Amino acid sequence: MSQTTTEQFVREHIRRILSEGEPEPAAKPKPKPEPKAKPKAKPKKKKKSTRRSRGQFIIKSSVPGAPPKGMRMADPAKIMSNLKAKGGASSMDQLVGFLSKVIGATDQMSDAYGSVKGIKDTHGREGVEISMGSLDNNNGARFMKITLSAAQTTGALKMDEDMRVEVGGAGVIVYKSKGGSSAWNKDKKKKKK
Fold first, then answer.
1. In a 3-state reduction of DSSP, which class is residue 86?
2. N or C, fewer C-beta in 10 Å, the chain?
């Protein structure tokens, strides 16, 4: 038995010696830890495109309903050409000059409308008052809206706010108003309830 124990001891010892000379089996490479994901940058919110941000504005009239058949909108460029409209307007002061030129450019417009002047309401809003010639106030407002719409379409009129054509004063008043709502001589502040 002692040989067997000695034999076993020697064999194990030889195996150890032999195994020391041999290269050890390659250890499996440890997987590299995945780099921590960077927090994703929040996508930039796209600015909501509104007609005002695009430089577009609306023109409303206080005279309800569509214009009569003979007053419907023709080609805006042709209207501006017929009115000999040159230049443009981007402020209320410039609008006074622009409308004065347009009204004085043809005999028909000079006959239909009177004078053009800049005015302010009781709350400081700027406007343009256009007196009537041979036209009544309602048709004067309709024609003026058509004229301003044609100027807007052709790029001659570039305002930063919506506009309203309203019967009032000596004929028609044109002024800036959010949403084209009726605001002339009305308090700007909302009343608290």
1. coil
2. C
